[in-house]
Amino acid sequence: MKTVCPVILCGGSGTRLWPLSRKSYPKQFVPLLGETSLLQDCAVRMRGPATAPYAKPLMLTNEAFRFVVPEQLSAIGIDPGPILIEPEGRNTAPAVLAAALYLSDQDPDAVMLVAPSDHVVPDKAAFHAAVAEGLITIEERGDLITFGITPDRPETGYGYLKLGSVPDTSGSAVPLDRFVEKPDLDSAKAMLADGSYMWNSGIFLFAVRDIIAAFKEHASALVAPVRQAVDQAQTDLGFLRLDATSWEQVEGISIDYAVMEKADNLSVVPYAAGWSDVGSWSAVQELSYPDVDGVAQTGDVTTIDCQNVLVRSESPAQTVVAMGVENLITVAMPDAVLVASMDRAQDVKRAVTALKAKGAKQAESLPVDHRPWGWFESLVIDDRFQVKRIHVHPGAALSLQSHHHRSEHWIVVKGTAKVTIDAEEQLVSENQSVYIPLGAKHRLENPGKVPMVLIEVQTGAYLGEDDIIRYEDFYARK
Fold first, then answer.
1. Which residues of the chain does CATH 3.90.550.10 include?
2. CATH entry 2.60.120.10 includes domain 368-472
3. Cβ–Cβ < 8 Å for 20, 29
């Protein structure tokens, strides 16, 4: 049996679930529907059944998330395989081709299972049964496989797959007739009634050599620059950075447009066991087990006499009360609150556009800033001073750095900190503090086995994050 190599695409930065999902930390990394993130759920699902040879997942992401990905996988006990860093987002076709070329160099007989990191597929066993059907078709016909979701409503937010025939109940692959763009409502109703149309899931399965051949035939202009980007990739702290100069020559295009809509050896495996791309807050409501009144709530929330609502509080210090409302989305973050009609769920990205036009930092950035060593949160920002909470993972360390414009006070509130100030090192325990003068070279480390938390008070004429001069950094940041 051929080895299945999972390929997880996790570099996206969607805006449709603002304010929880933002460019700085998009939806695949947040615990949207439980205790684990969508990326973690995807990685568990892509491990495969014990009866089949599945390789470690190959991850494709970008510079901003290169440390988030292994951290989240490590937290659930999954050791990732290669992590390829895209210099810039170029849509799915170059990413899939880069993965295929890399895998071909390792095992030209491999089969790759490609999936976005931000979808919900709750039935793992049914998913792998569908993959097994696809593997049979690849073995028999050498087809490129996509997975079609059996529609249960006339959805206008998805692209469709027109099958060559109405699928039977066996789950066997069916030849694909053509792709269909997102339809209007009347067309969606007609396709639902027809029975030979399915939603396009964006999940693919193909032999590595077959998809490379398809790229050479249908999107040949991509092959040379992506091949060069892979060949000239540089290893960096366990990541593989695709060559930036070569990547600049790559056209940004989806795999559907570049290859799948042109190939004549496509088959669709029907899938009816539950799937969502979680593309709107209305989808989140449906997936959040609403009660008999259609009320779905998360966090410190109280609802009274409400119908068909989603109410979320994303801060333990923030309570949200909804009373006598219908068809409403309310998502409360510490720095932003979304209130929208349920039938406008697909328009949330317009709010992000409006905020960006105003220069509002809430458009793209969360109040919590994730870093390789942990995270920090700004608690108070005022003229000439700022208060932060800083969380440092066990064994992690900030860079050796200095500042031109600010001094800092650190008060440890949990764990023990190892602090370097110029040539002096000291351990600072809970309820102890230390002062870092302006211009001093300093480093903060967590030598313990539990997270270390401190409160930082900055004072100075300028408090921006760009007032950092790095001298040494364990994470090779510039």
1. 4-271
2. yes
3. no
| Contact in structure between 21 and 349 (CB atoms under 8 Å) | no
Helix/strand number for the chain, H first, E second: 11, 28
Every domain range in the chain assigned CATH 2.60.120.10: 368-472
- CATH class belonging to 4-271: alpha beta
**Single-letter amino acid code for the residue at 180:** V
Residue (of 439, 440, 410) closest to 427 by Cα position: 410
Query: Which contacts (CB < 8 Å, 24+ apart) does range 283-287 have?
Result: 283/345, 284/17, 284/32, 284/33, 284/310, 285/309, 285/310, 285/329, 285/342, 287/33, 287/120
CB of 151 within 8 A of CB of 194?
no
Contacts of 466 by beta carbon, 8 Å cutoff, 6+ apart: none
| 116/200 Cα distance (integer angstroms) | 13
Give how far the C-alpha of residue 271 lies from the chain's centroid of Cα atoms, to the nearest Å: 23
pLDDT in tens, the chain (478 residues): 688 999 999 988 778 999 999 999 999 999 999 999 999 999 999 988 877 789 999 999 998 899 999 999 999 999 888 999 999 999 999 999 999 999 999 999 999 999 999 999 999 999 999 999 999 999 999 999 999 999 999 988 889 999 988 877 777 899 999 999 889 999 999 999 998 999 999 999 999 999 999 999 999 999 999 999 999 999 988 899 999 999 999 999 999 999 999 999 999 999 999 999 999 999 999 999 999 999 999 999 999 999 999 999 999 889 999 999 999 999 999 999 999 999 999 899 999 999 999 999 999 999 899 999 999 999 999 999 999 999 999 999 999 999 999 999 999 999 999 999 999 999 999 999 999 999 999 999 999 999 999 999 999 999 988 899 999 998 887 6
